[in-house]
Amino acid sequence: MKIGLPKEIKVKENRVALTPGGVGTLVRRGHSVTVERGAGLGSGIQDSEYVAAGAVLGPAADAWAAEMVVKVKEPVATEYGYLRDDLLLFTYLHLAADRPLTDALLSAGTTGVAYETVQLEDGSLPLLTPMSEVAGRLSVQAGAYHLQKPVGGRGVLLGGVPGVQAGHVVIVGGGVVGTNAAKMAMGLGAKVTVLDVSHRRLTYLDDVFFGKLTTMMSSEANIRALLPEADLLVGAVLIPGAKAPHLVTRDMLPLMQEGSVIVDVAVDQGGCVETIHPTTHDDPTYLVDGVIHYGVANMPGAVPRTSTFALTNQTLPYVLLLADHGVNALHRSRALMLGLNTYQGQLTYQGVADAFELPSVGADAALA
Question: Could you tell me which residue ranges the Alanine dehydrogenase/pyridine nucleotide transhydrogenase NAD(H)-binding domain spans (predicted)?
Fold first, then answer.
């Protein structure tokens, strides 16, 4: 199969979807790989490393002309022209928060397999997990920075000092993002409260953190009670492939103190904070009612070296399966079948269909 690796062009997105090691594995299996010049530079990977692995270098158009394109982030508007009906696209898509991209994929007839909806039998999301780990840890770093007075924050040090109360980090959602945010916040010495709808998950968190954080059931009443105390609120809610529910609503915002910070990691799925909207690494924050909102939708792009290797460790087995078998790989892997979002002009993921009230067909039926 002919595989293309274009350079990411989302603002300050420095990750790349394949390492030279991954390219070498594909080439040894008889596939050809075209890498856009400079695709790996943001992650510290030189073009010469790809050439040594067997890749051919070319412009963006050559990479996109391949049978399968492997990316990190969803195509942006200037890339829609590359979409076509004989293209297999494997990347993060997050369609439930992006109607224009959804329409573009359907109009082009592109086969879109989304990293974030590839799902194992136990319900885990193997291609979302590594970036959720990174984003969860970064959320606290970003929040701690923006709490500093010179950048508009309350002037709170999350860890406090002897004789002074530590900052309070409230995390809405106890999954992978929430767990990693809790690790970082506790490592800084902050007071941490995690809310989740699953009692089993809260029990797990209480056990693994030895009762050193507070766990609470996620409810409107509990969220309202915690907002006045929160120096940093981390949104860590996930419904696979679907739009995130607004658990912190617009009318709740005045409960928070001026200069407190919200980091909504769910922003690429619409956000669990009603007042959040996507921002970029160039201009990451804005104010609503005196509360700092951080809505960068590609947070792991800030640490591309770590993120690229963490992501490709997980994606490569699926890339190999798709390269070896094309769309038929979905019949060989139930996890990949669940990753199918669009196929021949049909929407094949119910969560996306629900977000936009569009018709859909099951992935199995579409491929039958």
Answer: 147-295
Helix (H) or strand (E) holding 34: strand 32-36
Give the residue numbers marked as catalytic: 94, 268
Provide the β-strand partners of residue 248.
273
Q: Quick: pLDDT tens for 7-19.
A: 999 888 999 999 9
For residue 73, the one-letter residue type is K
Number of H helices, E strands in the chain: 13, 15
Burial class of 28 by CB neighbour count within 10 A (0 to 12, 13 to 18, 19+):
exposed
| 192 annotated binding-site participant | no
- The DSSP H or E segment spanning 99 is helix 99-108
Query: Which strand ranges, in their side-by-side order, compose the sheet holding 340-343?
Result: 56-58, 32-36, 2-5, 68-70, 88-91, 111-114, 340-343, 346-347
pTM (whole model) above 0.70: yes
Percent of the chain at pLDDT > 70 equals 100
Q: Is 56 among the annotated ligand-binding positions?
A: no
Domains in the chain, start-ordered, CATH in brackets? 2-125+304-367 (3.40.50.720), 129-302 (3.40.50.720)
Name the region of 290 (left: φ>0; alpha: ψ -120 to 50; beta: rest): left
Q: What's the distance, CA 293 to chain centroid?
A: 18
* CB 359 within 8 Å of CB 347: yes
Tell me: is residue 131 an annotated ligand-binding position. no
CA dist 238 and 179 (Å) reads: 13
Q: What gap in Å lies between CA 262 and CA 112, rounded to an integer?
A: 32
**For residue 211, is it left (φ>0), alpha (ψ between -120 and 50) or beta?**
left
For residue 127, how many other CB atoms are within 10 A of its CB? 22
| Residue position matching structure tokens 């945010």 | 181
Query: Cβ of 29: how many Cβ atoms within 10 Å?
Result: 11
Binding site annotation covers 273? no
